[in-house]
Each structure stands twice: as C-alpha cells, then as structure tokens.
TrEMBL record:
Keywords: DNA-binding, Transcription, Transcription regulation
InterPro entries for this protein: Homeodomain-like_sf, HTH-type_TetR-like_transc_reg, HTH_TetR
PANTHER family: HTH-TYPE TRANSCRIPTIONAL REGULATOR BETI (PTHR30055:SF234), HTH-TYPE TRANSCRIPTIONAL REGULATOR RUTR (PTHR30055)
Pfam families from the UniProt entry: TetR_N
A GO term for molecular function: DNA-binding transcription factor activity
Keyword Transcription regulation: yes
DNA-binding stretch(es), residue numbering of this chain: 44-63
Organism encoding this protein: Gluconacetobacter tumulicola
Top-level taxonomic group: Bacteria
Protein name per its UniProtKB record: Helix-turn-helix transcriptional regulator
Domain HTH tetR-type residue range list: 21-81
C-alpha cells in the first residue's frame, strides 16, 4: 500500500448512531486481527467482512476500500499508544521506582491486543520511516516523562538515556510473551526483576524528600 492520503482517510464513514459505531468497531477489530495474522496484502475486504460476521455491503458502506480501513486503524493505534503513555505519566508521580518498573515492563504486552496490527500496517506504508520515528518518539517521550515524574531530580538527558534502555526491555518482554524472541520459562520474571533493580538504583537517589 502506498502512503494513504488524508482524502482516503476522510472517505471512511463515521456513524452517528451507537449501533453504527459498534458495527465499525467490530469491523476494525476483525481487520486488525486478520492483518496481524496474515499481513496487509493477504487480507481482503471479503475476509474482513466474514471475520466480523457482516455482509460485504455493510463493510463497503463504512469503508470504500482497504486503504481506508488501514488508515483508520493506524491512526487509532497511534492514539492508543499516546493515551497510554499520557496516563502512565500522570500515575508515575505516586509510584515507587519498582512499581513504575512493573508498569513499564508490562505496558506493551498489555496494549498489544489493542494495537496488534500496527507493525504490519507500518511495514506497508511509504511513510513508514516517519511513522516509526513518531511512534518511537512518543514512547521515549512518555517513558522519560514518567521517569521524571517519579524522580523529579532526574536530569532530562539522563531520563532519555534510561528511557531508551527501558523501551528495549519492554520490547523484549513483549517478544518473550509472544514467543517471537528466544526465551525460557523463567526468563520474563528475570527480566522483570532486572528492570526493577535498574530503576530502583537509578531513580531512588533522585526522588524528592
């Protein structure tokens, strides 16, 4: 798929009634599942309708083509990530470094069911490099803000450096849970402990009080 234009994105019908919004949510969930499982190119409009238990005409009523579905999903997924990091930042001020470590290490794993098609969608975009940059910047900015909220004396550059380490740990945990990276039964618990010890060592001396 080429870069989806804003015009294509606007052609998706945004229903006003609750029943219509529910139907669109079901269609998008079906599309996300299939794209994550099969890839974008192998996912057809007919397969999406079948997965959602909908008539093909109902799908085309809301989305004129697969590009419109992909564009809607992509924006939806990125919004979910932004909201999650914003919520984490608000919560971080009242957490200990160990508690924050647990929240961070589980974040991508918790969010994955809601954004599972994001990697496949980004892979087929001509602007995927920019989208990847935006996604990474959102993650690093959100983690850095949470670290500083937890440890207000933390320098911004140090926070950015720690955030980079933590983000890599988060991605590794997601890979272990999904079994897309080498793992063992006790490895996730070891990674969780390592993350807790790391943030406790880095943040505890820099907390207020």
């Amino acid at each position: 798929m080429g870069s989806t234009s804003s015009r294509t994105h606007r052609t998706a019908l945004l229903p006003q009634r609750a029943v219509g919004r529910q139907r669109v949510a079901e269609l998008l969930a079906a599309a996300s599942d299939l794209i994550a499982e099969r890839g974008y190119e192998a996912t057809t409009m007919a397969a999406i309708a079948e997965q959602a238990g909908a008539r093909i005409g109902s799908l085309y009523r809301f989305f004129p083509n697969k590009e419109a579905i992909a564009d809607t999903l992509l924006h939806q997924h990125l919004d979910i990530l932004r909201e999650a990091y914003d919520a984490l930042g608000r919560r971080a001020a009242s957490t200990t470094p160990e508690e924050l470590a647990d929240l961070l290490i589980d974040l991508l794993t918790t969010l994955y069911p809601r954004v599972k098609s994001l990697p496949a969608l980004m892979d087929v975009r001509t602007d995927r490099t920019e989208l990847s940059r935006q996604s990474r910047a959102t993650a690093l900015g959100g983690i850095s803000a949470a670290l500083i909220a937890c440890a207000p004396k933390l320098d911004r550059q140090e926070a950015d450096d720690i955030a980079t380490v933590v983000l890599n740990s988060m991605k590794t945990m997601l890979g272990m849970v999904r079994k897309t990276v080498p793992t063992s039964p006790g490895a996730p618990a070891e990674l969780r402990l390592m993350n807790r010890l790391y943030l406790a060592a880095r943040l505890t001396p820099l907390r207020s009080g």
